[in-house]
Amino acid sequence: MRLSRYFLPVLKENPAEAQIVSHRLMLRAGMIKQQAAGIYSWLPLGFRVLRRIEQIVHEEQIRAGHIPLLMPTLQPADLWRESGRYDDYGQEMLRIKDRHDRDMLYGPTNEEMITDIFRSHVSSYKDLPLTLYHIQWKFRDEVRPRFGVMRGREFLMKDGYNFDLTRDDALHAYNRHMVSYLRTYERMGLTAIPMRAASGPIGGDNTHEFLVLASTGESEVFYDARVPDLKLGDRVVDYDDRAQVAAICEEFTRAYARTDETHDEALFNQIPEDRRRVGRGIEVGQIFYFGTKYSEAMGATVVTPDGSRVPVEMGSHGIGVSRLLGALIEANHDEKGIIWPEGVTPFHCGIVNLKQGDTAADAACAGLYKALVAKGLDPLYDDRDERAGAKFATMDLIGLPWRITVGPRGLANGVVELTSRRTGLSEEMSPEAAVDRVAQIYAGV
Ligand SMILES: Nc1ncnc2c1ncn2[C@@H]1O[C@H](COP(=O)(O)OP(=O)(O)O)[C@@H](O)[C@H]1O
Ligand SMILES: [Mg+2]
Asked: Pfam families recorded for this chain (predicted)?
């Protein structure tokens, strides 16, 4: 993409309405525009990052054996009357009437609808296990939408639902989700800690939230200092291997990590004092085992091997896809702007032409652009007739992890400059070497 042809409406001034850095930077970098409280348009740069996050979520869900589909945003109220949640859900549910005076709603989540799909088509244990998921817009009429995409009213969520014959099978599905979520966040360059969450009316220990540590987070968190250092790394996971998947969950949940909702001071104080940490976190996902709550209420049953009929065992599992943009920026920025991790960056590399119109500089930039594209990369070429300082400021604000700077003086010596956004360090090298280096960096992502 050439910047002169792109749509990147950056703001010079700090928007007054933004209280936290991620919201401020998303507005300044021209990623989103608010259309109503908690409702945003995704401008091209923001949309690119959103799509990359979605792609990672899809890849890791499919790797875990989960199957994508797509349910609508609008739902008939009758499904929610069956589960009893139409009256219970309260004011967060946006209720709509169609022209025939039928009650509809903009889905805040999809347990009822997925259970309806299941009961219409599945009736035998032979079709289990089954996990279906989608990435779809949700609406929750939050009392206080705030912090930009972090707490919106309309937001993009990945929500998945497992259907299993036995409780053990459903707990394996729960574990599979935990591991696939850990991998998903790690690929984005984020550390998200699974923390035991409030169990609610279901009882048991079977819900975890995933929290990204950040001073602006809405939850207070208490954890053992060893927990954030845990990494999946590049170990190979066989999602059908129950013992392996359970062992990884045990490894990541053994040490103390809880939010204020479930915090237990006595247990916390058993950690050696120098390892006790109190901080704040952003919830970027939650997994939940709820057994037969919806299948019983809605008659989703399967025939067992011995011929009897039982309600199917279920759980639901969500990732805050649009919220992740905010969380990523909270965790990756400096005073100049965003610093995208390579896994989610909107463009892989920026090209800055220090002297637009200079024949050698223009040709070198065009050559770099072509060579990067040939390597399967997406460069953003700042070909505007602007001062170097302004070009650098834009690149720093939008946070591309790598920048190649091209000027007549360097070219006279056969070199361009490759700069890391994160460290600020620059290195001179030939244009070919710069392309190879950038390609090599992304080959490992
Ligand atoms: N209002 C919102 N704006 C943006 N993301 C949200 C919002 N509400 C929930 N999410 C994201 O969706 C994920 C799954 O939602 P869920 O756990 O059902 O929500 P909640 O924690 O509000 O009960 C959450 O972990 C969070 O990342
Ligand atoms: Mg939650």
From this structure: HGTP_anticodon, tRNA-synt_2b
CB 214 within 8 A of CB 280: yes
Nearest to 209 by CA among 225, 229, 223: 223
Q: Report the separation in Å between the CA atom of 286 and the middle of ligand 2, taken as the mean of its atom positions.
A: 5
Task: Write out pLDDT tens, residues 4-13.
Answer: 999 999 999 8
Contacts of 44 (CB under 8 A, 6+ apart): 6, 7, 8
Q: What's the fold here for domain 3-337?
A: BirA Bifunctional Protein; domain 2 (3.30.930)
Ligand 1 neighbours, Cβ below 6 Å, are 109, 140, 142, 151-152, 155, 157, 283-286, 318, 320, 322-323
DSSP output for 65-90: T-EE----SEEEHHHHHHHTHHHHSG
Sketch the domain layout of the chain as residue ranges.
3-337, 347-443
Residues 6+ apart with CB under 8 A from 11: 27, 28, 30
Look up residue 290 and give its amino acid. Answer: F
Question: In the CATH scheme, what is the code of domain 347-443?
Answer: 3.40.50.800
244-297 pLDDT tens trace = 999 999 999 999 999 999 999 999 999 999 999 999 999 999 999 999 999 999
Which residues on adjacent β-strands are paired with residue 196? Answer: 208, 258
Q: Taking Cα atoms as reference points, which of 79, 64, 54, 60 lies closest to residue 158?
A: 54
Q: What's the predicted TM-score (pTM) here? A: 0.97
